[in-house]
Design a protein that fits this description.
The chain has about 270 residues and is of the alpha+beta class. It is about 25% helix and about 25% strand. The strands form 2 sheets. It has a 7-stranded antiparallel sheet with strand order 6-7-8-9-10-11-12. The protein has a 5-stranded antiparallel sheet with strand order 4-3-2-1-5. A hairpin with a 3-residue loop joins β7 and β8.
């Protein structure tokens, strides 16, 4: 009874202290915004996936030409193209697969370079040059034609030949090295292409050359990465990007756009 009486005499504010609202500090507010930017776009991308047509077996999915390239014989000029498309099955919620296509002047066919999880990682002409990636329509990332492309092709071929992560078993879907790591390494050999992979190209920030800090692929900025798990990129071509376990949040000031995980680039086209 004495204890009950003592509790009754306590100030009411003390008794109900746990109900006092916690103020929204700047740190907490920033953390909430960051979590929303990370998980909100991914949730939207997941909704698109689950509401889309998932009835097609990925092994039977369309990999035919999307008609994005003219017939090689009818286009004598040199060509360089970089494409990306949503990757297979549920992984497409988060990531794209990218590849490179080249054609020297007067060549009778295009040559496509992929980096895949099966067989020898660097695959040459394993698919149609502008083929759908297991049903998904490719997106053009970068292009060059004529004399400009002709100067780039030897550099691209040398970068592919010198790519060190080319042994069976080197491929890792996350955080890399994967197809996007391979393409990022090749693009670094041709900064005059003035391009960067989309934010959904998970693996592009993996340190393929072993350097955790160095210039961006375009040569217009600086990039720091912790094994592809965490990273920060500041560049005129790349914009500002923060990599958190492969999910990229950023902005492009040169061609105004925001970059979000799962959804990719939203704004002015980068091409």
């Amino acid at each position: 009874m004495e204890l009950c009486a003592a509790l009754w005499r306590m100030p009411r504010a003390f008794l109900y202290v746990r109900h006092v609202p916690v103020p929204h500090t700047p740190v907490r507010r920033t953390l909430l915004i960051l979590l929303m930017l990370l998980f909100g776009p991914i949730a939207i991308s997941a909704g698109r996936y689950w509401l889309g047509d998932r009835s097609v077996d990925w092994q039977m999915a369309d990999r035919s030409s999307a008609g994005l390239l003219p017939p090689a014989a009818a286009h004598p000029e040199a060509v360089v193209r970089v494409f990306a498309a949503r990757t297979v099955r549920w992984r497409g919620i988060f990531a794209v697969h990218s590849w490179i296509v080249v054609k020297p002047a007067d060549a009778s066919r295009y040559t496509r370079y992929d980096y895949t999880a099966w067989g020898e990682p660097i695959r040459v002409n394993g698919f149609a040059a502008d083929g759908r990636w297991f049903g998904d329509l490719p997106q053009l990332i970068a292009s060059a034609d004529g004399a400009e492309a002709a100067e780039m092709i030897p550099k691209i071929q040398a970068a592919i030949k010198g790519y060190k992560l080319n042994a069976y078993g080197d491929y890792r879907a996350w955080p890399g090295p994967n197809s996007n790591t391979f393409v990022a390494a090749v693009l670094a050999a041709v900064p005059e292409l003035s391009t960067t992979l989309p934010p959904t190209a998970i693996g592009k920030d993996y340190p393929w050359n072993g350097d955790w800090i160095g210039p961006t692929g375009s040569g217009t900025g600086i990039r720091a990465t912790l094994g592809g798990y965490l990273g920060l990129t500041l560049g005129w071509i790349e914009g500002i990007e923060v990599n958190i376990f492969g999910a990229v949040i950023g902005v492009d000031l040169r061609r105004p756009a925001i970059k979000l995980p799962g959804l990719g680039r939203i704004g002015v086209s980068a091409v």
